Amino acid sequence: MRTSLDCLVCFMRQARSTGLLSTDKIDLQRQLLDSAGQYMEKVDTELTPPENAMGLYALIAEILGTDDPYARIKQEGNSFALAVQKEIETRIQSAKDPLRAAVRVAVGGNIIDYGALHSFDAAATMQECFARAFARDDYPAFLEALQGRPTVLYLCDNCGEIVFDGLLIKELNKAGCQVTAAVREAPIINDATLEDARICGLDKICTVISNGTCCPGTPLDSCSAEFTEHFQNADLIISKGMGNFETLSEVSAPIFFLFTVKCSQVALHLSERQGFEPGFLKGGDGEMVLLRQKEDI
């Protein structure tokens, strides 16, 4: 997925949002906006939005004097998810199809996203996700892909969300899958790192590796050799979140995308490249998606 002009507007909003989140100094907030505006002139629209976001957030971190402006938000996301983990897991285990329920929970957890700049109520979403309809639901194909106990590479996205990913990975383990989860190499927005995986106990459920980048997505050309080997050898790849979708939507691989749609440009890309009905976001953002990668990408 390429960067559009609307993405540039979103980048400016992200600079403003990060400034409000990180400092009450008006001069620093203004510097963030001025610098972000200058950065827009350098954006390569042939790259994906997450790849262009890397430079923007590096600039933001330099101006603010911290490599993790979202540290407090990440901690809050992890704490929230850990606090409701037992309750959500109980609901999964009492469901008629625990795997199906765990998929719903993992997709619902993707609402915890500060890069998309949408408003959200994580607590309400995690309760509602058990009954909400999907905009695309390739669950039958997902079940078929799990036959034969495949080797699974699970691409994680945000802090907090990874707690709910862990509940799905537990179900995959029960199905006999061999799961490796991948997180970001270094902090960017509220994306999960190896430290977050340890805090949330994900490393006790499966093997966890870094993808080798601080991109809020998975740009294969920039990923580490270790990650690339896992990606190439996986029988099945579960890709969580919009950033991973944006960077992998045109990659030919055995991918299932699990995310909530929080961006009009992603919705447009789904319509143009993945066969979604135009204007499918009738009720606004937050539509849940379980999408198998097209074979003719």
What does this structure look like?
- The chain has 297 residues and is α/β, with parallel strands linked by helices.
- It is built from 12 helices and 7 strands.
- The protein has a 7-stranded mixed beta sheet, sandwiched between helices.
- α2 runs antiparallel to α3 and α5 runs antiparallel to α8.
- It is globular.
- The two termini are 12 Å apart.
Topology:
Layout: H1 5-22, H2 26-40, H3 49-64, H4 71-93, H5 98-109, H6 122-128, E1 134-137, H7 139-145, E2 151-155, H8 161-174, E3 178-183, H9 194-199, E4 207-210, H10 225-233, E5 236-240, H11 242-248, E6 255-261, H12 264-273, E7 287-292
List the main descriptive attributes of the protein structure presented here:
seven-stranded mixed β-sheet; 7 strands; alpha/beta; 297 residues; globular
Question: How is this structure best summarized?
Answer:
With 297 residues, this protein is α/β, with parallel strands linked by helices. Helix content is 48%, strand content 12%.
Number of strands: 7
Number of helices: 12
Give the mean pLDDT: 92
Strand order of the largest sheet: 1-7-6-5-2-3-4
> What separation lies between the terminal Cα atoms?
12 Å
General form:
globular
